[in-house]
């Protein structure tokens, strides 16, 4: 017996136990070779999906322009003209406000009207529809929609010939179809329009399905809003970018160009509006002064024609000068009343106070408190404009700002009324003084006094008229000095390459995903690979010694186990079995010999499950030992599923079961083989209690009698993973051998072997690795077995060894080769 201290403790963890964490390059390479087809097909498949996606996805184009925002009023800066209302001169505003203005419905409505986007034309395709922009074969004119149900609705047109077309659409649950002629007015209770052919019409368009849509304003605004992008490119330089996306590149460019144009027009229009109001005010005042001057001029002419002189005495001149001074003050106050009236009208009409620029020669007393009130009112009006772009009139925020505006407007009106009252008082006082001075002219000729008065009034009005003309000229210069720094740094471009989908990116992603799937397939197959494939893996999963390996037989496919060693003594199979035969001497207890004629050796051969090749190994190992001039007998103790008799092409009429129940004697059951020194005993008829028969002393007597006749006894036992018969036999033999089949046996079987060794003290149990594909210097073999592939499956019943349709189809091609 071998010292138990030399047996490794299989319960002690070691590096080999963690075999899943160790990378087996040989197995990886083998899995890679097996998966190479899939690794090529998966990227091709994913790239094909990407190609189909690109083929049936409409490209999106983006047109862009770059703008520099700011407007300087060079004329105002030059002449130093400032308005009464703070913020009246434009400084460019903040960029966020400009961006919101560009994206506002004010701009969108002008774009829609300028480009005539009310009707869209399309050609139906099997998957994608193509839009006709500026080149439709037909055009809808004089359209009028009487029901909103026909807005944003597909109206199909199929051209029948050069004169007729069929119009169809879905109305509720019904499909309406009717044939019309081109240029024929189409009038219904829902719509009216006329369809005409364009210069782009071709006879090839016949029978091609087209359709058009009459777009609603809300749909067009939504379309512009969803595809327009406005962003800040450089905040310090006040540069913004305008982008528009569309499936048609020409349409995208035109929309960006129109937005740039409309925004420039609106910006300059807003700037010039204040100057326009100032000029209107000056024109009204000039007209009034001209009327007064004409009146006084007529009086002067009449006086001179009548009296032929204009001399006055010194006293009269002094009085007139005083009266002139008072009249000037009165005129100034009247001018202030006019300006206050203009401002009061603007407040009452809720006009834009930032655009008001009254012309005043002298400051108005009492208006010091007006400037902060007007500034606050102006700020509230600006806030209301911004809110109008975002909120509805019924929102709480709008109502709140309306209340604040009304309150601020009331305060301004009260202050204006108070100032107007004070000015009226001053005018009345001045007029009273003038009346007193005029009364002093009683001693002077009334005509001369009247002349002096008229002359002075005329000169006053003349001076004031010239002053107003100068102011008007200044405003004209200011208006001419409005320099638009709204510079289009880059015009809207015509995109050539779509921004989406990007072909290289899609192909890269799909190809990369295919490569990822290929690598994932290899990794998953590696991680899920639970079969023993080579000697290295077998050494990792079990502590039991490995006696040798047997190559896979490739010369011909064997349906059942056969004796092959006598056919070609120099084959790689024979060499491998000879190596195992030699190694058997190393696992026998000390002092014993495999060929000791005094003591015959018993060898059992088992496996975990059926199909691992134990019968093949037992048959051919027995043959190779017998070919060394030793008497060998094979015993088939797998009485549940016997196969040994099939290897020698004989019937299983009598055998071990008959001997154990004493129905036959040993000599009756021994059968000959093609090798003279090799005999075998088949299993015999299947008994109901194989395990009980082996437990009997009759089985020990059978082995004892055979040891007297033969040198080597090889027992083919049942799989120990399925039944316990094999373990009972292994306890009675000298050398228990365990067969593991490459690419068939699971790795977990190694733990079962270690447990079997530990629980039954099988110190000299050794493993034979069967059906190894690649063995240096040797060939291999291939054969079939009758056992089931997994634990507990197919052991007690025979299964027909039918090939799958795919295997039979592959075998046909192999035979043709």
List the helices and strands and how they pair.
Elements: H1 25-55, E1 61-68, E2 71-73, H2 74-79, H3 95-102, H4 105-115, E3 119-123, E4 130-132, E5 138-145, E6 155-159, E7 164-171, E8 174-181, E9 185-187, E10 191-197, E11 209-214, H5 217-227, E12 228-234, E13 239-246, H6 249-307, H7 314-348, H8 370-390, H9 396-439, H10 446-480, E14 482-484, E15 487-490, H11 503-528, H12 535-541, E16 546-551, E17 557-558, H13 572-587, E18 601-607, H14 614-626, E19 632-636, H15 644-647, H16 656-660, H17 666-669, E20 671-672, E21 678-681, H18 690-695, H19 697-709, E22 712-716, H20 725-730, E23 735-741, H21 748-760, E24 766-772, E25 782-783, H22 805-816
Parallel strand pairs: 16-24, 17-25, 18-22, 18-23, 19-21, 19-22, 23-24
Antiparallel strand pairs: 1-13, 1-15, 2-14, 3-4, 3-11, 5-10, 6-7, 6-11, 7-8, 9-10, 12-13, 20-21
Helix pairs in contact: 1-11, 4-5, 4-6, 6-10, 7-9, 7-10, 8-9, 13-14
Describe this structure in words.
It catalyses: L-tyrosyl-[protein] + ATP = O-phospho-L-tyrosyl-[protein] + ADP + H(+). There is one protein chain. This protein is 47% helix and 16% strand. The chain is rod-shaped. Strands 16-24-23-18-22-19-21-20 form an eight-stranded mixed sheet, sandwiched between helices. Helix 4 (105-115) packs across helix 6 (249-307), helix 6 (249-307) packs antiparallel against helix 10 (446-480) and helix 8 (370-390) runs antiparallel to helix 9. By secondary structure, the protein is of the alpha/beta class. The two termini are 56 Å apart. Among the domains are: 24-57 and 501-528, no CATH class; 274-484, no CATH class; 542-785, P-loop containing nucleotide triphosphate hydrolases (Rossmann fold, 3-Layer(aba) Sandwich), CATH 3.40.50.
